[in-house]
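Q: What would this chain look like folded?
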Amino acid sequence: MFSSHKHGGQLRCFSQTFGIPLADWMDVSTGISPWVYPLPPVPPACWQRLPESDDGLASVAAEYYGSPYLLPVSGSQEAIKLLPHCFPSNRRVGIISPAYHSHQHAWAAQGHTVQALKPTQVAAALPTLDVLVVVNPTNPTAQRYSAETLRHWQQTLAQRGGCLVVDEAFMDVTPTQSLITSEPQAGLVVLRSVGKFFGLAGIRLGFVWAETPLLQAIAALQGDWSVSHLARWAGQQALADQAWQQQQCSRLVLAGERLHTLLQRYYGDALQSTPLFSYLPSPHAATIHQTLAAQGILTRLFTEPAALRFGLPATEQDWLRLEQGIHSCQP
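A: My prediction, written as structure tokens:
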């Protein structure tokens, strides 16, 4: 088996390395909700029949995101991979970094010139860019950008035929901060994920919001059945359930605040948080990561710069276990 990238999770690898059975691990390495949308029993047709585009997913997604200008994709990862193919060759692409690594890989693999930018460097670099990629809130740093700032960047780029790409994979808890509007806008692409907020990363479903010609260009690059019948069915159930969404928002906000408070107690104010994860820059990140992993607690380690990402524990027992693990890391 071959894999081109490393992501959070990877439990089997760590299980083998540390000699701890899979069932004994607590995985807080991702930003995926520990509370999974409770899908009803899967209809047999989801397994038997090929997916169809007129199955009702489009209308449910339009209601949830507030616009019909959407293309379903096999997770926002598929959109990240295909989007660079839809631009003229050798575009100058700025990516605010650190950020989800697949953006850099996808644009560079297609032959574009990629420049990693700090947030403070964007204003100076903007006149030289054709495309600016922003993850908001940023995975993994939890950095947020105001809609006013992002729209200024978009308008600046659009005046020269450029484009702002905003990855909103972790935006669902704060939907009013999304850049999606009822009508698409020139020079603006927004990527959304169903996996994080709904705890349904395994179904591989996301959406691209953009002007129609760009959506058509991405669709032309997709396989005939890029999004499975099961993913389309599950997405319809989750996106339509407003009562559950409200409950999920409330508990994620509370859990995110609890995680931030816990980590702040031990590591001070260096960390940044979203409702789904916290980001802790630390020169001791590798040591903390190893110490926790030896106890069957998996975090996500980053090396440039040295940092850790902590996702949310699922149960009170997990919260206690995480705090005990963090306490054991103290000098």
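The chain has a mean pLDDT of 95.
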